[in-house]
Amino acid sequence: MSPLTAALNSKQGDLVNLIADRKYAIVMLVLSVIYCAAALLLDADFNPVNEKFYPFVLSVLMIISSIGLFFWPSPHTTSWPKGKNVQKIGLTFTAILIYCFVLHTIGFIISASVLMAICMWVFEGKRQWIAPVSIVTAILFYILFDRLLGLNLPAGLLNFF
Amino acid sequence: MFDLLMQGFSVALSGLNLFLVFIGAFLGTVIGMLPGIGPINAIAILFPIVLQFELTPSSALIFFGGIFYGSQYGNSISAILLNVPGTSSSAVTCIDGNPLAKQGRAGPALAMSAVASFSGGVMSIFLLIFFAPLLAKLAIDFGPSEYFVLMVCAFTALTSFSTGSFIKAVFSAILGLAIATVGIDELSFGGMRRFIFGIEELGDGIDFIVVVIGVFAVGELFIYLSELAEDTAQTVAPVKKILMTFSELKASVAGILRSCVSGFVVGVLPGAGATIASFIAYATEKKLAGSKGNFGNGDLRGVAAPESANNSSAVGSFIPLLVLGVPGSETTAVMLAALITLGVTPGPTMLADQPDMFWGVAASMFLGNLVLIVLNLPMVKWLAKILLIPRWILMPGIAILSIVGVYVLNGSEFDLILMLLFGIVGFVMRKTGFPMAPLVLGLVLGGLIEVNFRRALTYSYGDYSTFYGSPITIGLWVITFLSLVAPVVIRLIRQRSRKD
Chain B contacts of A108, Cβ < 8 Å? Predict the structure, then answer.
């Protein structure tokens, strides 16, 4: 069965999914073209043994597969998160992002316990347990990695610890 | 061969390695049990520790190997008791394992899973030490062009056997290869830096650990959050008597043997791996049992077959990794990346040049399986208590642990931000149906595939016939073609048999 007849025979839901795949194909194509342009802008001869040719070949293959997906989309079900779950993902993402930036200044124990607490809250943990569990976990990880294994974690504000 | 194996045992039995086998097997069991963490992210998290203690490549591989096959034991515990597979390779074990637990027969199910895992694991080690040297002899003449074609073959098999859209799998693989081109190009004169877009931190390239943790730990966290329902309270089935009866064991022996062989073959082939091995084993046994079986409602044979198969395929997947240096699955790909970082590139000459490595790992697998059967039979009652940790502690805890792993690698905040970005990329790709295995394999093999491609063309003065001129390359192209056609043929046969 060709993709076209598949699309015609399928129900409305499948059609939506085929359109979704086309959207992804366009995103893929944009990425591939950027990569292709970056490859062509490399300051080297266009010789198979040089550093320019191989990424160019990759980008061409990427462009071909993007176009391929556009014309042969596959029916599948994408269930994007809704409502509360989007907020939860957004909150976790922001928390990790802030963690990345403050880790060095305020140190591992404080930033990790706050991050852990936020994650536990997002996972709907029992309220009264969130603070003790997150602090204990952060301290345990600090002792394990920094003190026992000798892998340095920033002490930050608690540099007397 | 016997001498070499004894030499291997002397490596595996040395103090440190024995300790690593034990710890690896134990950690593997725990990691296999827990959802949200599998051998792949566990290896990525533990890699900085391996670097810190300056473990030799063979010790590192003994350790990681223990984690890998240990996780195949552990994942059935949560599959049986919780109806949630610890890792996807025991998804089929749920089908019969959990009904057994609900009937109050969790003990026999766990015992059967442990015995089948052990038998599958140990028998496949014999297959490994028999077939690996044969294959190494065959591959000894491989030059850059043969390697390049071999890797193309591995990618084709991986993408054509992956579930879902073939085109998406191909794109995933090439995206992985493209990510691998970021940073210094070691072949060019003076080391040209490519695709860094003005970001100095990208100059050394993107570390595989950052991508693996981003995609498999952070991405997984987002996936969990996107599917989080209101109430996910789970009940852990109680474990009473551990052993099954002798007749039950006898009924499963044939299935364990068959699944071991099929699992091993699937494990050796690129792209398939433990999950598919367990599915094939289960389907075969169900079909063979016919109406006499109680499959789906709690048949011990339905636990034995997939558990034998997934352990055996885990061992089998060491063949392409160690003999060819071209891994066929995500987890072995991460092991390869770790080995390359430690300064070893496995290949056919390794068996002859560094016998300690291959034979040490093989011997350690015997020891590891002994440790695992002890952990999983008499001690399974206590181990199962780990499943009582509530998910709202477990998932954040695993997330923090993963993030620590990325940071301690280079002590860089940039790596953390990159990890978060790859978390989003992994989340979106998985939601939109792009498989992750080709991406990881592409990332890990990217450097090697480019080096071999350019070297082959340098040796042949730009003549492309080097890629199809020798008997080996022609043979590899034939296999590549067959792996492209096979899924289509299998689908056609299935459709026809359904019509009949």
Answer: 404
